[in-house]
Design brief:
Blueprint: H1 3-22, H2 27-51, H3 57-80, H4 84-119
Helix pairs in contact: 1-2, 1-4, 2-3, 2-4, 3-4
């Protein structure tokens, strides 16, 4: 994990703390939203690392990540129902924590391109 990822995770943790302070009655949902997205991102990134030898690894990653995001969001929207506070937190977590995953994959692609050039 590099500086950018660390800063983004710190912002997400600060926002989670703010939401927990302002809305303590929703603590189960807030913690569940945050950590479920974090765990799913780690799993998707590890799957990408296993797939990166394939020719279409980036496309497979994008498809898996898009499917994960849709299923995750619909599941939480179904559980939350019409609670505006939790929907805003859901959107915040989704936007903040998606960035490090894509950044990590782009960094992996860049490193792979450098190693390919060195092999030639």
């Amino acid at each position: 994990m590099n500086k950018i990822d660390t800063i983004i995770y710190a912002f997400a943790a600060v926002f989670m703390g703010i939401y927990l302070y302002q809305y303590p009655e929703y603590y189960i949902y807030i913690i569940g939203i945050f950590f479920s997205f974090l765990v799913l991102n780690v799993l998707i990134f590890r799957m990408y690392k296993g797939l990166k030898k394939m020719s279409m690894a980036v496309m497979a990653f994008m498809a898996m990540n898009f499917g994960k995001d849709i299923l995750w969001a619909f599941l939480w929207i179904f559980l939350i129902k019409k609670n505006e506070v939790l929907v805003m937190f859901l959107a915040l977590v989704f936007l903040l924590l998606s960035i490090p995953l894509y950044h990590s994959v782009l960094r992996e692609i860049k490193n792979n391109q450098k190693s390919d050039k060195n092999q030639l």
